[in-house]
Amino acid sequence: MAKKYSKKFWFIFWTLSIIFLISWHFFWQFQSRGIGALAPALDFVPFLGEEGEKYQQAAKIADYFLQKDDQERNYLILFENNLELRPGGGFLGAFALVKIKNGQIVSLQVLDSGNFDCQIPEGIDPPYPMISKLGIDSWNFSNSNYSPDFAVDAQKAIEFYHLGGGQENFDGVIGITADVLKSVLKITGPIQLEDYPGIYDSENAVITLEYQVEQAFENQGIERSDRKSVIGELAKELRGEVANLSLSGKMKLAKILLEDLEEKNIQLYFSQDEMQEVVVESAWGGQVDQNWQNDFLMMVDANLGSFKSDYYIDRQGEYFVDFSGETPKARLLIRYRHNAKQKDWMTRDYYSYLRVYVPEGAWLEKWYNLENIRFGQELGKKFFAGDVNVPIGEEKVVLLEYSLPENISAENYVLKIQKQLGISQLPILIHIIDQDGSQSDEEVWVKGDRVVE
After folding, report:
1. Among residues 78, 112, 346, which one has the least CA distance to residue 209?
2. 10 Å Cβ neighbour count for 140?
3. Cα-Cα-Cα-Cα dihedral of 321, 325, 329, 332, to 10°?
4. What is the pTM of this model?
5. 75, 109 in Cβ contact below 8 A?
6. Closest CA to 313 of 210, 429, 393, 420
7. Please, are residues 171 and 73 in contact by the beta-carbon 8 Å criterion?
8. Long-range CB contacts (< 8 A, 24+ apart) of 138-142?
């Protein structure tokens, strides 16, 4: 007998797939387009119910988007290009203004962040080291996501939007990265466009599109003003493929979009306290855990080289905690590998401003391959920071040795690792040296946030 599905499942599927999948069209195409043809899908509700905590939380969010109370709600969608990594996910090349009323998208406007920045008054001091490395002397919308906490970035984006003359008051902010497009193509399968060369699949679509709109259009006789028309064609094909998915295919798409939430490829922020509590409880808000009282580790890169070099960067962590001495010690190694073969339109030597967040009370004693060292405290954590430079084709290992606060002991030891927004996954080798000198080892793959005991 065929399995039946409840309203709750389809609320989740249509809300997440429409808002996040179709938003990807606008990540690449900086112009306003209506999506009225999709709005009726929001009213389509076949049936069933999958219970479980995450689905229940997703259903609450879906119900909020779909409620029919004659109230118009405004949302700001941030398109995070994590090929150029920033602390909040990726460079903000574009953003969208979405109005939803009675469960339907009634208007959508997409803006080029670079053009919008020209409307923001000058004289706003940017965070260190944007002045010297990015060459900007005033902070702007495109570079607003400098915090590793998405709620902070969402509020900062709203602030810059209003400074640029924007009038809307937002009910929520949604951040999505390039990995969402990959996720959708994993389910639909490869797509070939009639008037464009190549096949777009989950492995190559992001780079193929980046190359098409930045380089290839010139050799194809396409006017610069029309260079992003390929994205409209791809979006049209994707909509058709999604509409024709089997029931099991639609199930897989809903599941993979929920995985993107879990893995921080999609982040949410709501101005309404009740909805924001749902987001925080689900860990879908990209928040730094300020209440964590045991050992803590978060590595945050800001690619300030103005190129898309993060596509070629592999990262790996190795973390030692030693309780055999008088005070607990930590030793962190971060290995960067730049896999590009040569400089081109997309990549250069990798420059990052690295911040490592650790427990308050930690004290840095030694460091290596971290230049212009700085220290600070924010978000309930201490951070060590500095410049990291990785030439093309080379590997560099950053080393930090520091003491941990005395309240962290072998008896109560628990480590929380939080992954930066925009990084797909992070392998970390963990070594715990007990008071008697014995050592335990574990390799973890951090896809979201991870607690290791």
Report:
1. 346
2. 23
3. -50
4. 0.85
5. no
6. 393
7. yes
8. 140/113, 141/92, 141/95, 141/113, 141/116, 141/117, 142/91, 142/92, 142/93, 142/113, 142/114, 142/117
The 10s digit of each residue's pLDDT in 74-96 is: 999 898 889 999 999 999 987 88
Give the residue carrying structure tokens 């996910």. 89
Query: Between helices 7-16 and 53-66, what is the axis angle to 10°?
Result: 70
**Beta partners for 325?**
none
Per residue in 20-32, pLDDT (tens digit) is: 544 444 444 333 3
Residue (of 301, 267, 300, 299) closest to 283 by Cα position: 267
Note whether 333 and 430 are within 8 A (CB).
Answer: no
pLDDT per position as a tens digit, 233-278: 776 677 678 778 887 887 787 778 788 888 999 999 999 999 999 9
Under 8 Å between Cβ of 148 and 177: no
Which of the following CATH numbers is that of domain 295-452: 2.60.40, 2.40.128, 3.90.25, 1.10.287? Answer: 2.60.40
User: What's the whole-number average pLDDT of the chain?
Assistant: 83
Whether the CB-CB separation of 191 and 198 falls below 8 Å is answered with no
> Is 414 or 228 the better-scoring residue by pLDDT?
414
Say if strands 371-378 and 72-81 run parallel, antiparallel, or are unpaired.
Answer: unpaired
Domain segments of the chain as ranges: 7-282, 295-452
